[in-house]
Amino acid sequence: MAKIGTTSTFTTPYNEKQASYSLEASAAMKGDPEALYLVSTPVDGATIHCAWLSGGGAAKFLLNDGMNSKDFIDSVGAQYLNDAYGTSSGTRPTKSTEYFNGAYEKFSGGISPSAPAADRSYDAGAIVALAIAKAGKADKAAIKAAIPEVVAPGGEPIYARKAEFEKALKLIKDGKPIKYEGVIGPVSFDKYGDITGPFRLWKIKDGEVTTIGQMEADAVSKLKASLAP
Predict the structure, then answer these.
(1) C-alpha to C-alpha distance for 47 and 19, rounded to whole angstroms
(2) Could you tell me the residue range of the domain that residue 86 belongs to?
(3) Does residue 4 have a pLDDT over 60?
(4) What's the pTM value of the predicted model, to 2 decimals?
(5) Which of 16, 76, 86, 99 is found 20 to 30 A from 59 (Cα to Cα)?
């Protein structure tokens, strides 16, 4: 299940991969909401948007990070998305960011470095790989415990590229701490395993996604702390 949310105080669930979402879109229009908050994927999201718009829904949207997709924009029609906003993880540039933006398309087989989740997926893979090396054994508990250790403050900074990963493996072998600073910037993990990093706000304008603001990691941490029970 996923959800269609609106600026009203209710949500409308839907089953994924349906041919039509007219009934769900109609249900979400109850109360004449001024906007649609949609958590979906590009394919389902496009179908839902078309049903929403054809049913008379307001052309004002808040989207999740997975909707930052050229396919989604083209399917819906750029002219209907000029008041569409979204959020995703932000970037505090490091040496990893520069390397990734310049090299990723080539070594990934043609995937753009701006593709949805490409930067975070790369960082996730790097962190897990370093944690496996840090754990030193194929044990899930040991690897889980090692994940925060490879991004912990005080370690030798490690950036994205082959030579840096080779350097990290040597440091780990010598028992020295490392701190991976990835494509989206330095991150840390809370007790639930969630990362704290910057978030960016983007807007679709004339078919293009443009960053219009960013909340830095420190501000995100303070906000999370203020919302804690």
Answers:
(1) 8
(2) 2-90+198-227
(3) no
(4) 0.70
(5) 16
Same domain, residue pair 10 and 84? yes
Element spanning 98, H or E? helix 95-107
Distances, alpha carbon 103 to alpha carbons 38, 50, 113, 114, in Å: 33, 37, 8, 12
Report how far apart, in Å, the C-alpha atoms of 195 and of each of 55, 217, 224, 226, 227 are: 39, 10, 11, 17, 16
Collapsed DSSP state (helix, strand, coil) of residue 116: coil
Domain count, the chain: 2
Q: What is the CATH number of the domain that holds 18?
A: 3.40.50.2300
Q: Is the pLDDT of residue 18 over 70?
A: yes
For residue 191, is it left (φ>0), alpha (ψ between -120 and 50) or beta? alpha
The answer to whether 84 and 35 are in contact (CB under 8 A) is no
Q: In terms of C-beta density within 10 A (0-12 exposed, 13-18 middle, 19 or more buried), how is residue 176 classed?
A: exposed
Is the domain of 101 the same as that of 83? no
Dihedral pair phi/psi, residue 8, rounded to 5°: -75, 180
